[in-house]
Amino acid sequence: IKRELELRIRRPGPGLDAYCYYLYALVLKSLGYEDQASAALTTSLRQESALWPAWSMLADLVRNRHELEGLVLPRHWMRQFFLVAAYVRLHESGKAELLLNELTAAHGGCLADCAYLMRYLGIVKDQQRSMGEAKAVFKQLFECALDGADVYSNILYVDNNHSLMADLAHQCVLVDKYRPETCCVVGNYYGLRGSHDKALSYFQRALRLRPDYALVWILVGHEYLELKQVSNAIQAYHKAVTFNPADYRGWYGLGHAHELNNKSYYAIYYFRECQRLCNTDPRIMVALGESYSRVSLNEEAKKCYVKAFHLGDPDTMALFRLAELYEHLGEK
């Protein structure tokens, strides 16, 4: 089949309409030909600019800012909604928020209650670590839709909110217990309770329903770390960055897991990749500094701790690590 597709890619036949190009892109994506799938989708959209599934899949295929800027797309109102999804995927939360504000204010604010936009607003607030605002958005959204329930459950997990997590899991199961997002929510519910084996079983069920669910691969990695199965965690995080290389959390998980295996040089590589994708999180800089310190790259470690301090360092961990390093080096 791959050989046939390769020949087809080189010599696409005439007469394909927008819908056929979309189906063609689906097959290409499933076989790993992501660049060719993106090309087929842009061709589809030039023929039928209102084909939303093509916009949606194209957003999922964007791997970096350079690729996004290189896309030649039709001028259509759906393009704005596509850009919201693409910016969020690339963790460009500032650009996504500006565009979301424009869309919700347009046409007299008639889109202010749009579930699609509310979901992405909640994700943007989560990326900006504004947990209170993110929780408020998802709580309002959850009254009418399950969109973003997986991200909402992550926020409740971090917030250690057992009661709201239990309510969310119960409602998701009532609405659609076979939905991948529902399995993710229930997995987070069991993870919050400390039932890591049950959490893994639900996450694995979500992956059977959607094998490219990068968020769940990250959560699987977290659960394996809780069970002290570091090798399995590394495999899960590798899957996460394969399916979504723009999500820094998978790279962070790889760095943390390799530190647990005392492989600091590997950890440095993954933390640097993580920092490249998200250069505003002080926790990443502290983790990178700790890895540098373990291999005696002390000047690099100092720079990381200082930068983490300037980024905010809410736990004051950067200053503590910097003081420890100065003490170790005898720099009173």
TrEMBL record:
The keyword Cell wall biogenesis/degradation does not apply. GO terms for cellular component: anaphase-promoting complex. Keywords: Cell cycle, Cell division, Mitosis, Repeat, TPR repeat, Ubl conjugation pathway. TPR repeats lie at residues 180-213, 214-247. SUPFAM superfamilies: TPR-like. SMART domains: TPR (SM00028). InterPro entries: APC8, TPR-like_helical_dom_sf, TPR_rpt. It comes from the Eukaryota. GO terms for biological process: anaphase-promoting complex-dependent catabolic process; cell division; positive regulation of mitotic metaphase/anaphase transition; protein ubiquitination. Residues 16-95 form the Cdc23 domain. Pfam families: ANAPC8, TPR_11, TPR_8. Gene3D superfamilies: Tetratricopeptide repeat domain. This is TPR_REGION domain-containing protein.
